[in-house]
UniProtKB/TrEMBL annotation:
This is Beta-glucosidase. Transmembrane segments: none annotated. It holds the Pfam family Glyco_hydro_1. It comes from the Bacteria. Belongs to the glycosyl hydrolase 1 family. GO terms for molecular function: beta-glucosidase activity. NCBIfam families: BGL. The active site is at 169 (proton donor), 380 (nucleophile). PROSITE patterns: GLYCOSYL_HYDROL_F1_2. The lineage of its organism: Bacteria, Bacillati, Actinomycetota, Actinomycetes, Bifidobacteriales. Its EC number is 3.2.1.21. GO terms for cellular component: cytosol. Residues 311-330 are annotated as: Disordered. Keywords: Carbohydrate metabolism, Cellulose degradation, Glycosidase, Hydrolase, Polysaccharide degradation. It comes from Bifidobacterium [indicum] DSM 20214 = LMG 11587.
Amino acid sequence: MSETSRFAFPSDFTWGTATASFQVEGATREEGRADSIWDTFCREPGRILDGSNGDQACDEYHRYPEDIALMKEMGVGAYRLSVAWPRIFPSARGGVNQAGLDHYRRVLDMLREEGIKPVVTLYHWDLPQYLQDAGGWANRDTAKRYAEYAGVLAGAFGDSVDTWTTLNEPWCTAYLGYGNGVHAPGIRDYDQTLAAVHHLNLAHGLGAQAIRAELGDKARVSVTLNLQVTRAQSQSEEDRAAKIRADLFANEVWLGPMLAGTYDPRIREAAQGVTDWRFVQEGDLETIHQPLDVLGINYYSTTYVQASHGEDSPARAAVGPQGSLPDQEANAMPAQESVETLPPRGELTAMGWNQEPQGLTDLLLEVSRRFPDLDLMVTENGSAWEDEVSPDSSQAKGKIVHDPKRVVYLEQHIGAVADAIRDGARVTGYFAWSLLDNFEWALGYTRRFGLIRVEYPTQERIWKDSGLRYAQIVRDNAI
């Protein structure tokens, strides 16, 4: 977007911010909550970079009134939060934990009172450990248990939820949890990976059916995918084929079943020798292919790939930039061994990810042209940097974080959304990741994405320049 141009967003455009339950809530042993796979993963030595866990995190379980007040001050009209499944069904024997439902009801009611629309993600990676003990997402029964959970939430919360998001980034759940093992539950088995892919798709379809069975057509149903923008390193036939293969396993395993009711036959062909697809049953694709009111898209960076040329060029396309940890060799799916992911270029964020706002524009336009009747929302977008607190007498706490690189990233990517809308993409909202610094999964508390800083020992919240800039953009409804 030109630095001298100004784009006014549509008057009904949704501005929001986002978090996830395990990353911010804490209170992992309060009011009946059971262990999730991430509680277990954090206890395994060497799994989390700084040896930390989510026991306290940002303490949002207790501090949500303070954080809702911050959202109100920021001016956002929506908050994307997730429900912790182990708070609702803490036992393998079944039975709903009323204390868990009551907590989220209080949060939803307060958001509504402040004029902030709740966008609720039902599954943001914190699978109850007892379900993992029974096979997790590699087990078909987990999708059925998910549908039960979705139906209970829909019945309990009803009209209090503006948008129901079935899953967040199932790509990460399947490939990082069951493929290279860098996320919970830490399994390295690509037959289980593809079983998890299918059962997550099935859970989405069953969950959408369960929500609509409770609420009817008035339910606004979505799913959030971290669709990856993969660039071929060159226009050679080999490199273009590598991009296609990477896209099949990163994107088409979700888009095909969810939005078209089919798996691209090239996926099965490419995965020969990995799985026999025994987990796909008759009628599954019809179940998965449910009407969507909006598709959520998470975007951070792009990936450049080329054809792999032997053992000295390890394939990494099944992992991609958001799955890699610093100085950790990724483990590629055997079906991806002909694809090599190249090191990112340019100034990298603290996550080691590149910055390419054009990738967000391209992605939104591509998806909108492919599915022209579907509304899109950018449900996560943000960047991690090394932050420092500075004195500032103009702020209530006398402190502020000057984060010019995050400000630039924010402005450029919101500008990329504006470009996509101007060129015809049906984008109806943008959610900045994240409201708060939080537990960054396998990286623990070593990376900060927040628009507001959290001092973890004291739980003090401190504004960053990026949060103030975002508030201005929201207020102006323009970039």
